[in-house]
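Sample 3 of the quickstart, ligand iron/sulfur cluster:
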Amino acid sequence: MQNNISSLINKINMESKGLGQINIMEVCGTHTMAIGKNGLRQILPENINLISGPGCPVCVTSISDINNIIELSDNPSNYIFSFGDMLKVPGSKSSLYEKRSQGANIKICYTPIDALDFAKNNPGKNAVFIAIGFETTAPLTASLVKKASENNIKNLFIYNTHKLVPPALEFLLSSGKKSNIDAFLCPGHVCAITGSTPFNFINEKYHKPAVISGFSAEDILKSILMILKQIKNSCPSVEIQYDWVVKENGNPIAVKYINDVFDYCDSFWRGIGKIKKSGLKLKPEFENFDIKSKFKTPESQIDEPEFCSCGKILQGEKKPFECRLFGKSCTPDKPVGPCMVSSEGTCAAYFKYEKYKI
Ligand code: SF4
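Result:
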């Protein structure tokens, strides 16, 4: 293993010579964590600059959504089912974690089926599943909604915040962000569902290299080497390094689940803004499962906490060290912004693995 890493680093050193600075965005928070954990930033040549992207679902969920979910938890008939990471994200005044400690009905779940089982067994109560994540988790939500529909369950709802990765990358490229992205390490888990095809615009329209990468140190280094070869040979394409999991056409069954239940819609990404067709909304025939329609929750734009740079970090324009709150008033124990909360957040990854630079 060590030999493989050394050999890959040697090859990367050779391929990167004379290329100038290459900015590679790792889109997915799991990649950010793996890069930090394995100290890859420190062993790569100086001209390879890894920048983090918007691939942490908790980080890009709007404050307005967090506030709405917190408000829903004030209603004693509502039982909120959420994955654990969401609980610590600060809303404007509180967090789900604080509400739970004050006695609100907020349950951590490991699968959406927990919400369905609760709904079946508690007909007088509303089970509200917080549907969060990208293409990776959307099929699970779609399956939940289908099952609830088939079983005529009337007290199961979703609070839908699902988002789609390719439109966010297109947004970054088309808006010419200061980060000057030269290439992408694309998210392996998302692509396991979508396949590589939805990412083809990266080379076809923007002439940038992209490699869909696995998550070990070796996978990531191999992917970086593939990117450098594409740059050197001036032949940008979308390649699959994670080829034992990701196929060109993805997982057609999972994609069908998404398409059966959801339509595309514009979506608001925290710290970034509205991105066209980057979200999913329930099709009209499933709208009765939408808690936002039932309780008419508002969608409002709310300012980020003062001095928080999460928006710029999510777009690759800044690194966590460049936020004046990093490691001082913002730590994983007392997060100010979402990038410090999530286990996949960029600031959390830097705090855990690259704290020495504070
Ligand atoms: S250190 Fe905290 S406040 Fe600063 S960008 Fe990261 S999460 Fe936001």
